[in-house]
Amino acid sequence: MRHLLALLAVTACGGAQRADMSEGERTYRAKCTACHRPYEPSKYTPQEWTASLDKMERLNKVHLSQAERAQILQYLTGDPSGAPATSSKP
Ligand code: HEC
Q1: DSSP secondary structure letters along the chain
Q2: Following CA atoms 42, 77, 66, 61 in sequence, which dihedral angle do they give, to the nearest 10 degrees?
Q3: What is the pTM (predicted TM-score) of this model?
Q4: 25-50 pLDDT, tens per residue?
Q5: Around Cβ 41, how many Cβ atoms within 10 Å?
Q6: Which candidate, 19, 62, 63, 85, has a CA 20 to 30 Å from the CA of 70?
Q7: Per-residue confidence band for 78, with pLDDT thresholds at 50, 70 and 90
Q8: Which of 1-5, 14-18, 66-70 is predicted most confidently?
Q9: Rounded Cα–Cα distance for residues 24 and 38 (Å)
Q10: Best of 47, 49, 56, 62 to mutate for ligand 1, by most ligand atoms within 8 A of CB?
Q11: How far is the CA of 73 from the centre of ligand 1 (A)?
Q12: Nearest Cα to Cα of residue 46 among 89, 90, 79, 72
């Protein structure tokens, strides 16, 4: 029971840095939360994420290297290339 409670306490704490955080999530939080809270990956489709990244870079002068952009897109959409998911996917 102790263990379960500890686990719940850790997972409930969404805003804090977690040890198991992926490289992409780390980069996302480092690069994308200076101006606003982190948006949930599930909040947008891969197409919308790609467009949002473009928009952030264009309008908000967010500077990302190719690697950082790929990491972030990998985390947000599961696709390292950042290519919009094909609409034929379910
Ligand atoms: C320099 C400040 C700044 C940084 C850094 C920044 N954003 Fe934003 N972001 C904004 C502002 C301001 C808005 C709301 C106004 C707007 O639409 O531009 C916004 C809105 C958004 C939205 C809401 C949808 C939309 O397009 O309006 C998403 C999604 C988003 N940002 C993603 C990101 C991601 C991903 C990154 C990291 C690559 C990032 N932001 C980094 C300033 C920033």
Answers
A1: -HHHHHHHHHHH-TTS--TT--HHHHHHHHHHSSSSPPPPGGGS-HHHHHHHHHHHHHHS-----HHHHHHHHHHHHS-TT-PPPPTT--
A2: -30
A3: 0.77
A4: 999 999 999 999 999 999 999 999 99
A5: 16
A6: 19
A7: confident
A8: 66-70
A9: 13
A10: 56
A11: 14
A12: 79
**What is the maximal distance between C-alpha atoms in the chain?**
50
**In CATH, what number does 22-77 get?**
1.10.760
Q: What tokens appear for 72 in the block?
A: 């972030």
How many angstroms separate the alpha carbon of residue 60 from the centre of ligand 1?
A: 7
Residue 4: other Cβ atoms inside 10 A:
8
